[in-house]
Amino acid sequence: MTVDIIAIFLFAVAIFLGWRAGAVSQVGRVAAAVLAVVGAPYGAVMVRDIMFADTELSRPVVEATSLFVAGILIYVAVALTGWLIVRAMHATSEHLTLLDKLGGGTIGAIKGTLLIYFVLTVFALLQVPAEKLDPSNAMGLRGGHATEFVIEHNILAPWQLPELSELHTALKVRYYADELDRERVLHDHPRAADFLRKDAIAMLTDDPALMQAVVDDYYPVTLADPRVRAALSDDKITQTLSSIDWESLLKELMSPVHS
């Protein structure tokens, strides 16, 4: 519940800040940052010719300083232009001002949602350690609606934890081969079968509770399991794991059987 309250508070703050800044101002700052990064190499040529025509500084210092100064100048110029546009809008029409603020609130809500979701994906991975630190959940750090939603819809986990995600898929192959009585599919993929017979992997597949967490893609449980961490710390295991197309094998297992 505590996490839910914090998430709601941060979401409200993001909307408020977006409302205050306005849409044009926020878009202007993003555009300024993008143009500064993209335009700095081109602007650096002019900066170098003007500021360092007769310098005795080393080449790396000149190049780095030119890039930095060009980026700052571009950012300030674009941001100032955006600020002037906002001022002109506010002076011209209250209707445009209201639309700008509504747009700013919407952008703030989107930014807040993305930021909160990202933070919660990280926090969700700490649920098991949090249970050990606070068994009674006195601080309310576990079981919140926001955290549970992210755990169930964690689209970032495969990107944040690619090896763990791949191990999940490999273990699902073992699980569904047994559940669907399709062991013969593994016979056609001897390297995958050999991998799943390894002691470090077999001890995982022999644990029903852990396998249920794998099937549910409940990353907090699998990441906290020392056996999983030990397996992912073994270079030979991770090399073999990454060399097999587990996704295709899982699809083959799950495909309908034609008699």
UniProtKB/TrEMBL annotation:
It holds the Pfam family Colicin_V. The keyword Transmembrane applies. Keywords: Membrane, Transmembrane, Transmembrane helix. This is CvpA family protein. It is a multi-pass membrane protein. The chain crosses the membrane at residues 30-47, 67-86, 106-126. GO terms for cellular component: membrane. It comes from the Bacteria. It is found in: Membrane. InterPro entries: Colicin-V_CvpA (IPR003825). GO terms for biological process: toxin biosynthetic process. Its main location: membrane.
